[in-house]
Design goal:
Layout: E1 3-4, H1 7-12, H2 18-23, E2 40-44, H3 48-59, H4 64-77, E3 98-104, E4 109-116, H5 122-132, E5 137-139, H6 140-149, H7 160-171, H8 189-193, E6 201-206, E7 212-218, E8 239-242, E9 246-252, H9 254-258, H10 262-271, H11 276-291, E10 308-314, E11 319-325, E12 329-333, E13 338-342, E14 344-349
Parallel strand pairs: 4-5, 11-14
Antiparallel strand pairs: 1-14, 2-6, 2-12, 3-4, 3-7, 6-7, 8-9, 9-10, 10-11, 12-13
Helix pairs in contact: 3-4, 10-11
The protein binds aspartic acid (ASP).
């Protein structure tokens, strides 16, 4: 793989931050007009509608958790987002399994569900786990029973399009099974682009009372082994909020994040005084170092082969995002404007 390193500058800079942060344009601050309101919503790049909805609710005085859950529900309900909720891409058996977590800053409480089938809004179920049980995480059949006890209706989450994408993957998997390869002329390039795709939405907000909350919700990896749980429902990995400091969440290779508890790490870097963007970059740097130890997840030169993104807000309303490899974006509503921005990055390919 051909890479042009921002990493060398990164390491030379000692603490490793100034060079990389400069490459991506530095930290984003609220401008003077926003101080006092300082409401912010940040999300992964598929979350522009979520940030818009969440800010609408924040402007009405909503708690940050209500706002971000209402925001991501739009994406969970959207059949055209194949990475979350209804229309999400299924596991290798063609079954959609969803993971989600929520964390509420003011009460430092959290709830999560993993491998949840047939319920299209796992974020709402995660919230009920937090509010209506003494537990934090429910999985599989137990999570489904719990959701049904709260009146959620079972639905088929596999849309025709997601099924076609799954079928194509299955048909092209092996030359030595009984499935013929897909007829290429029947496949649109859109379907082809989904064959190895994945995705998630993370959304965090700071509300008018200065409280932070976040949510992460996903259908996880396409064609995952049934029962696989990613980082999204694991507090500290896919999401972490400390109401005194900041909130952070993640999308990308969940396993890399599970092995490093990196959303927690991002918040801890903010606690030490790093800006949100610097904190995201520092966590990525740490993960990049560990990736060298993971066979198959780094190349012959030790560079990670995977994508990973972090999104963060601090208590002051500063926000930032960073990705492992240049090219990712994030959505943010800063109280004035709802927009997509370039994420800072650790490495860039030539
Ligand atoms: N982090 C998610 C997972 O590992 C996938 C993604 O964000 O693309 O399940």
């Amino acid at each position: 793989m051909s890479v042009k390193l921002s990493r060398r500058d990164f390491i030379k800079s000692g603490v490793g931050l100034s060079a990389s942060a400069m490459l991506a344009g530095g930290t984003n601050f609220l401008d003077a007009g926003q101080v006092g309101r300082r409401m912010v919503v940040i999300s992964s790049s598929n979350g522009l509608k979520a940030t818009e909805k969440a800010m609408e609710l924040l402007n009405q005085g909503s708690d940050a958790l209500d706002a971000v859950i209402a925001g991501v529900n739009i994406v969970e309900d959207d059949p055209n987002d194949h990475s979350v909720g209804y229309g999400g891409l299924p596991n290798e058996e063609g079954v959609v399994e969803l993971d989600a977590s929520v964390m509420h800053g003011p009460t430092h409480n959290a709830g999560a569900v993993a491998s949840l089938r047939k319920i299209k809004n796992p974020s709402k179920v995660a919230r009920l786990v937090m509010e209506r049980t003494a537990h934090v995480l429910l999985v599989g059949k137990g999570a489904l029973k719990f959701a049904k006890a709260h009146g959620f209706k079972e639905e088929n989450l596999l849309t025709d399009k997601a099924r076609e994408i799954w079928l194509r993957r299955k048909e092209q998997l092996s030359d030595s099974d009984f499935w013929y390869p897909p007829k290429s002329e029947t496949l649109s390039s859109e379907l082809c682009s989904y064959v190895s795709s994945y995705g998630t939405i993370n959304c965090c907000a700071l509300d008018v009372n200065g409280n932070l909350s976040g949510v992460t919700t996903t259908s996880g990896y396409f064609y995952k082994i049934p029962g696989r749980v990613g980082d999204s429902p694991i507090i500290g990995a896919g999401l972490y909020v400390d109401n005194d400091i900041g909130a952070a969440g993640s999308t990308g290779l969940g396993e890399a994040n599970l092995l490093t508890c990196a959303s927690f790490m991002v918040v801890e870097f903010m606690r030490r005084g790093n800006s949100p963007e610097e904190a995201c970059l520092k966590a990525l740097e740490r993960i990049g170092q560990k990736a060298k130890l993971w066979p198959g997840r780094s190349d012959e030169n030790g560079f990670p082969r995977f994508g990973l993104n972090f999104y963060a807000i601090n208590k002051k309303g500063e926000y930032g995002a960073a990705c492992m490899w240049k090219g990712a974006h994030f959505a943010v509503h800063d109280g004035k404007e709802n927009k997509l921005m370039d994420s800072a990055y650790l490495f860039k390919r030539k």
